[in-house]
């Protein structure tokens, strides 16, 4: 039996008719940039997360870059983040000209260790980016407490954790801003690239909205006025149409980006957003069966905190004999993945930052042991049983 790490074809099949319809609708409407599907999706996303502002962008990495820029972070600033995450969490910091400052993770949850943050704070530190890794929310109360004490922004990297909760509060509402990714393999994925910034902060939302479209037009002017303390009413241009012609578009107020969510992706995401809670529940059901079945084996199952609703973007096991287990599973036709083989402080590209092996023992330890097995809503019980039998065989 061949089982992929995630089955996007099965996901498509489950919604085929509706997805085809909305895609053709956008295609035939000839409204490809911004417009109704984008604004409606942003509204629906805000309602779902429980925030005031959702600003859709081209991908999750751009979401982080634009959010940091909106916070005014750049050259000479430092931003603290986890060393055990996808590269974009730190790349975004470098992309705005600031320096990523890495912190080790906790061995049990793989999330940034709040006890090790404060020693890294300097007078250049401007923000903390906690990453809700593999779908489990970071220790936000402790992180927010430190941020408040030192007057730092908190930007949640929630790219792997849509729908997750922390002490009854939704991921995305726990810091100053949060970023999501709609990369196809994420829990909520589109048919290409996509991302979202959310916030309850009106000023940050206004600046981020301006930055995603060249800092131009009405949004650019509003952001400019906010940044320069100018009290002035900004009016929409007569006859303005965002998608075809808007005379204000050719007036620029900030150096921004061109990073928008395509109307086609927005239409697809509107269909899929309705499924996300059901999908996350299915993931948790599979995980419960895995955890129960792997008890007593020579493999460590992931730990989920009681007060956190984990959405299992990945189901991460640990083994001392990882390479041979992966080889066994491959032979059985079961796809696996290693997340993450190199902690960010040891990436070649960050050599100049001066970190060395041994700096963050937990992340380094995990990087040699962790691996992911398939967990997705469309897994059949036959597939789940086959995976369980194969892991049991290999991890006796
Ligand atoms: C996927 C991901 C991103 C980047 O999202 P893209 O849409 O691929 O740019 C950032 N951070 C984390 C933790 C991710 O998993």
TrEMBL record:
It comes from the Bacteria. Keywords: Aminotransferase, Pyridoxal phosphate, Transferase. CDD domains: AHBA_syn. The active site is at 186 (proton acceptor). It holds the Pfam family DegT_DnrJ_EryC1. GO terms for biological process: polysaccharide biosynthetic process. GO terms for molecular function: pyridoxal phosphate binding; transaminase activity. The modification N6-(pyridoxal phosphate)lysine is found at residue 186. Belongs to the DegT/DnrJ/EryC1 family. This is DegT/DnrJ/EryC1/StrS family aminotransferase. It comes from Clostridium paridis. The lineage of its organism: Bacteria, Bacillati, Bacillota, Clostridia, Eubacteriales.
